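Quick sanity check, TetR family transcriptional regulator:
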Amino acid sequence: MAVKRRYESSYRQEQARRTRRAILDAAAVLFVTPGYAATPLTAVAASAGVAIQTVYKTFGTKQALLSALVDVTVAGDDEPVALAGRQFVADIRALPDARSKLARYARHLAETHARLAQMMLALATAATADPDAAAIWQKNADERRAGMTMFAADLAATGELRPDRTRDAVVDVLWLAMDVRNYDWLVRQRGWPVERFEQWYVDTVAAAVLTPR
């Protein structure tokens, strides 16, 4: 009986994960077109093939669904692993010099933007008129700045930052350079190869915050 209960529990958990994923996938499409404000949760439920009550049970509110969607899209998965525990952060910290760290982050940034650019641009548009979307956009902006504050500290530990740049100034540059709108303009609209975008990121940030070679 114990084995059967474990099997049933495992099956229910897997079924819940699949349901959650289906709802997130549906929201990822509909929150871009026709857009967050124009998409009722009933439309998300219909697209995901679940009852509206299931959407409410899983996420509670439309804003919570949007927040979860942003978090999962940024992370690339729904594993409960904090930013500091992600592999790319460990990779960056293990590198010996600032330009190598910037190059590793540029690769992570390009991979992330390829996954989330369309949704984040739609969120930015929605945030101009919808308070829920504006709150999620601000939350993401705060998290990005916190991440860049951590990155700035790692770069500072190399001893390669320009002495005339304050820590806040370095964070500002990193925060600006990582903005998804840079990727959208250069890669998605201007057609830059991803490798050229990554090199642009490294060269731009290095010129602004690192001591000259």
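Posting the structure with no commentary besides this: The chain has two domains: 1-80, 81-213.
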